[in-house]
Amino acid sequence: MSPAAVKFDHLERLTDDTGLIEHCLGRIPRRREGYSTDDNARAIWACVEWLDLLEDDESGERRRLYRLLDRYLAFLLWAQREDGTFQNNFHFDRTPEAEAHSDDCLGRSIWAAAAAYVSLDDDARRRVVAEIFRRALPVSGEMQFLRGQAWGLAACCLMLSKRNNGLALPFGVTEADLTNLADVFEQRLLAAYRAHRTDHWRWFEPQITYANGLLPWALFVAYRYHGRDETLKVAKESLDFLTAKMSGSNGVIRPVGNRGWCSSDRRADWDQQPVDVMKLALAAREAYRVLGDETYREVVRRCRNWFYGDNDLGTPLADPSDGSCCDGLNPDGPNPNRGAESTLSYLLTEAMAQSLQLEVVSR
């Protein structure tokens, strides 16, 4: 499938002059559900992934992606508090919802800013993401949960890698800042793995829950920066274990269901979430970049195909004609609602598959 075959109509449908609306009823945005910084950060990341793919686009999709990107950048800039953290949830009238602090939101926003900073080539937008990143970085060291730390580790190592290739760091951000934080995050992930790993359970936690591929992915990103043997060993071992847990006997991707998760003695099969498929693809793409093993490229392909019907029910969740995706897979079929998280998970997985294909061709 060529890059032009995937449309961004649904992403645009979900986007108003404030940002990306979180939920839909079918394909129609549910304004009463408001907005989340999580989704707007994901949307920034998706836009820069696709802008890289569509460098030679003549269809006008790049112009549309830049228009959407500006909405999401403005949202993130607005959602960032004075202390560098982010308000995650907003009502439709733009007033903040009551909420607890979210490490995931902070980490995801730091990653989005880093990904945009290293990808964008215009000073105006890069100035915005540099400011977001600079203000968020000091408070990120306070993150307590693994997924937020994984985002932070990957963001710091991405910046450091590009720094080694000649990219100037954002004003006020030093190489020492990034190195110190990356070391802290990496050691926390490795310590969690050592604490929970057994001969039969090769994971960072006593359960496999949500967004799982994020953890091995961050370690692969870190390894690409500094090449530490233990980091690579844990990244590969945990990803192989996760892939086995997320694969059916017929070879299709089978995400761990959020109706009970997965422990050493049981596994929930439903409700399967697109975001978990995307995070597995993310980790597998990075594993392929590090190891060059075709097994991981095949995992990315299988993840992509899950959206198009190569799943437990043999039914598509994604519609490339408008770029939308159903919110999950249940025993009785797909959830018909097509919200922001699922749609972005589809668009990101498709972008990952296509980028990997281009990398293979260029080798």
From TrEMBL:
It comes from Parageobacillus thermantarcticus. This is Glycosyl transferase. One of its GO terms (biological process) is carbohydrate metabolic process. The lineage of its organism: Bacteria, Bacillati, Bacillota, Bacilli, Bacillales. InterPro entries: 6-hairpin_glycosidase_sf.
